[in-house]
Amino acid sequence: MKHYSIYYAPLLSFYSKSFYRDVGMRHKGIAVFYLLLIVAAFTIVPMLKLKEAVSLFKKTEFSYYVEQMPVITITQGKLSIDEPVPYVIRDLKSDRPVVIIDTSGGITSLQGKEARVLITQKSIFFRQSATKTESYNFDGIKSLTVDREKMYEWMNLADRWLAIAAFPFAALFLFGTTLIQVLLYGVIGLFFARIAKVQLDSRALLRLAVISITPALIIDAYINFRGIVIPYWPLLTYLIDLGYLYFAINANAAPSRPSAGVDAPPPLAGG
Questions:
Q1: Do residues 243 and 42 touch, judged by C-beta distance below 8 A?
Q2: Tally of CB atoms within 10 A around 254
Q3: How confident is the model at residue 256 (pLDDT cuts 50, 70, 90)?
Q4: Could you state, in order of their start, the residue ranges of all structural domains in the chain?
């Protein structure tokens, strides 16, 4: 049997039965380190997209909203602005309200409002959906002043560092969700192994599950980078994963041997 390093998986996982056989029979453990590496590598693509989106917002729309911003001051958990209230910041394209600032107590919720954000004297409210709103209060803020200059400073920091700062958290989150997916595939692998009449222990099934998700991860990274939209793509990735999982398990089936006296080849002449 030919031996392969597991790090050939990004190429060989697409087609090589002998690679899957080597992973199933010879390799040890459940390939957690490989999974962490490949997930981290493919987290780079959404982080690049995030950096691109932040930079584009900074160049196109950010200044429009910042120039509408009043000077905001928070003292001992209470917010005030240097403009009459209620104060409205409007959308660039539709001219609809995006942010309402009202420290008078006249507006206390986003119910019945078009705006997505409401800032009151003591709290800020974000509309997450038609039925869900999150709020945070200013109790922990003793002294803070936010003006346009500071907003530009924060935007420059976000443009430079947000994607880098978000990378480890995004990678760990994706690793956790992918690990759960692999564990589920390991259970499904037991069923596939029974169909294919293959004897593999749980560690081997988990290793094969880790490798079998590699093709879909690579394809997903490519289409996201290129901005390609494929209908029902998340569902298709699961089908691709399961197809490769069965391919991987079936590759570990023992080669069939001819029965003596029935299908055995005739002896060579002179032998």
A1: no
A2: 8
A3: low
A4: 6-52+159-250, 70-146
